[in-house]
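Handout, page 2. Input:
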Amino acid sequence: MEPEPPFEPAFEAAALVLVCDHRGAGLNALVRKMGKTPWRVVSSASIAESLERTAGERPDVIVLDPLVEGGRAEIEVLCPRRSDVEPGEEARSLPQPGIVLFFDPARPEPALSASTELSAQAFDALVRGASAEELRMRIERVLADARREREICELRHRALHDDGTGLLRPRAFQARLAEHFGAAERHHLDLALVLVDLDRFGAINKRFDHTMGDRILTAVSEAIRASLRAEDVAGRIGGDEFAVLLPYTRKVEAAHVARRLLEKIRKASGMYPGSQERIDVAASLGFETYDGGDLENVAALRAHAELALRAAKRDGGNRGVYFRALK
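Output:
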């Protein structure tokens, strides 16, 4: 594997501050009194304009003087809980923009309620009538909190995901498998597990080098993602071994997914940078299903899928085998 670049938190040097003067009561004028700042400051005068701004670019901090005290509805509209979800990849919540909320000092309760509900993101409240210097200080504090949250989110993602492919690491995948198996058992839901092992991958590494192998692993991981739904979970569980968890999936649907995976992986074949010849990529698949009650535990599910994978390898590879079809 190529060495990983030094860690740099995903945070812009020039943070974006969105000023939402929804009441039209002078917030933009107060912002101008702050003078020159190290941030990019953009303003909006209505909810519609604020939505347009957030659709174009995600702000780091939102300064809000809400139409309704507490601003809960406006915050929910401007900061919906989003997930960075790709098919086959574990969902992870993106850090939300920090909030600086103006409130009426005679009615602090709505702001306190908003503070409690937004405890998972950087938040501060400021009384109407505060000075420009106070506003600047609050923005700086919320930006610092938001930066720490982004760094934590990025570090958490790196701890759970493989550096080369972006898929879940083995322990993280096993944890998700155990969670889904437990849910399927409690609620009698269907579940399928597919194990994937590339065919003759060692020969590719010997013929070329590990850089070429890394490129192929990246292409295969992209093929796996392209084959799956948002709720599916994919992991890299070994050097050239992958696993795919398919919630709410019966055996017929699992067979369709296995077929699609094989086709997508085959399409990763071709000319790669640094090779003078076509590289054929193929895989063996083994899969097992669970209906919420027909297996003793999650270990049995995985063991059955591994046995099916071995059978696919013995039969020459480039195929998928369902455990319950074994004789």
